[in-house]
Structures are given as structure tokens and as C-alpha cells.
UniProtKB/TrEMBL annotation:
Keywords: Membrane, Transmembrane, Transmembrane helix
Native species: Christiangramia aestuarii
A Pfam family the protein falls into: DUF6090
Regions crossing the membrane: 21-42
The name this protein goes by in its record: Uncharacterized protein
Keyword Membrane: yes
């Protein structure tokens, strides 16, 4: 093609047709510019198409993370409600008279001392942030919603961590001050020994029949803290579940439009 244009230019010059040569040269330049613009447009289109496909991949990954988190929220809510129920039962029965070591042992094994932590699937979001690809989410409203959601997660995560540290510190202080009363373990074989072996002493439970005793009041306060803590956690898990559901709907709508 270049050789063809060169031949035409040479013929025009040899024929002395300078005016036609200039017009032709200008036309040739215009054609080259148009060709470059078309090539750039095609390249931009290809790049845009590539980014759109990558955006869809990330949105689908975010959607999968949020669905897994929904299951996690439901499980965490159920577990927290179990703790609330058990600790509420303990607070009701602690004022009953404990007439034997077996009754005292049964009562002291009612409370649960778990600490729920907020652990979600946020690898996709972290990857978007660390790789600088957060702007690949082309819908400004959706991008803001995604960022706001994970900021809320971070705030709730820190709050739960601090509350857990506070409650566990209370528990540690109680156990060190009144050893022998609370038996804790997460190992099934050790728990079986705690429930069935003679690991409790009768004197460990005398305080249970004296509500004015400082040990009685300290234990009641700790159980109240754990109960109230998980009531707050249930509300937080439910809120995150609702916000997550709304974000899922926004992502679905965006994917459908694409």
C-alpha cells in the first residue's frame, strides 16, 4: 500500500502537477490520521471490553464472599443466642438453694463463656484495594456501597475484639481470685472429666447460697457481661446481614445490566 502511494506521488511530480500533488499529499495525511484514530478507537474498545470482563469477575467474587458471610452470620447468631439462653438460665437459677455439690456442679456448668469474633470473607475486597483496582467497579454508587460496607465491618470487628478482651479479662480476674469454681475447657475428653469426676469441692459452692457474698455478686456480674455482650453481638450480626443482603441485591442488579 505504501509503495502504491509512493508511485502515485512520483507520477504527479514528474508530470509537473504540483497542485494535485499537494492535495494528494494532504489527503494521504488525512487518511493516515483517520487510520491511527480508528486503530486507537479499536484499542480503547478492546481495553474497555477487557476491563468490563474483569469487573464482572470481581463482582461475582464479591457476591460469592457475601453469600458465604450470610451463612456465617446465621451460624454466629444461633451460637450467640445459645449462649444468651444458657446464661439467662444460670441467672435465674443462681438464686435457687444449692443443697449438694452435684447441684452446685450442675449450676456452674450452665453458663457458656464463648467469645464471638467477626471473621468474614474479605479477600476479594482486600485484593481490589491492594492492587489499586477498586475503580474497576464502574458504578459509582455501587463502589461507595462496597467501601462503606467493609469500613463498617472493620469498625464492628474492632468493637467485638475490644468487648471480648474486656470480658475475658473479667473472667481471668475472677478465676485467679476464686480458683476452683469455674472449670473451662474446649477439649471433649477434659470436659467429660469435669462433668463426671470429683473435681469440685463442697466449699467451692458455699457462696452460691449467699447473694450478698462478694464472690456471688462478682460471678453474677460476669455472666451478665457475657449475656449482654452477645445480645449486642446478635444485633450487630443481624445488621451486617441486612446490609450484606442489600449489597448483594445491588451487585445482582449491576451484573444483570452487564
Amino acid at each position: 500500500m505504501i509503495k502504491f502511494f509512493r508511485t502515485i506521488r512520483r507520477k504527479l511530480l514528474l508530470a509537473g502537477k504540483t497542485g494535485q500533488y499537494l492535495k494528494y499529499a494532504i489527503g494521504e495525511i488525512v487518511l493516515v490520521v483517520i487510520g491511527i484514530l480508528i486503530a486507537l478507537q479499536i484499542n480503547n474498545w478492546n481495553e474497555t471490553s477487557k476491563l468490563k470482563k474483569e469487573e464482572v469477575v470481581y463482582l461475582k467474587r464479591l457476591k460469592l464472599d457475601l453469600k458465604k458471610d450470610t451463612i456465617y452470620y446465621n451460624t454466629s447468631i444461633d451460637r450467640a443466642n445459645l449462649l444468651i439462653d444458657r446464661n439467662t438460665l444460670f441467672l435465674q437459677k443462681i438464686y435457687d438453694e444449692q443443697r449438694s455439690i452435684d447441684e452446685g456442679k450442675y449450676l456452674m456448668n450452665i453458663p457458656l463463656w464463648d467469645s464471638e469474633y467477626l471473621t468474614i470473607q474479605d479477600n476479594t475486597f482486600r485484593e481490589l484495594v491492594s492492587s489499586g483496582k477498586l475503580n474497576i467497579i464502574s458504578n459509582p454508587g455501587l463502589k461507595v456501597a462496597v467501601v462503606d460496607f467493609y469500613r463498617k465491618i472493620e469498625v464492628q470487628e474492632n468493637y467485638m475484639k475490644e468487648f471480648n478482651e474486656y470480658s475475658r479479662e473479667l473472667m481471668a480476674n475472677y478465676v485467679s481470685t476464686h480458683p476452683g469454681t469455674i472449670k473451662q475447657t474446649r477439649k471433649p475428653d477434659e470436659l467429660d472429666k469435669i462433668l463426671n469426676a470429683s473435681m469440685f469441692r463442697l466449699e467451692d459452692f458455699k457462696f452460691l447460697n449467699n447473694p450478698s457474698d462478694s464472690q456471688f455478686q462478682a460471678l453474677e456480674d460476669i455472666v451478665l457481661v457475657y449475656k449482654n455482650k452477645h445480645e449486642i453481638f446478635v444485633d450487630q450480626f443481624q445488621e451486617l446481614k441486612n446490609v450484606s443482603k442489600d449489597l448483594l441485591n445491588q451487585i445482582d442488579q449491576e451484573l444483570n445490566e452487564k
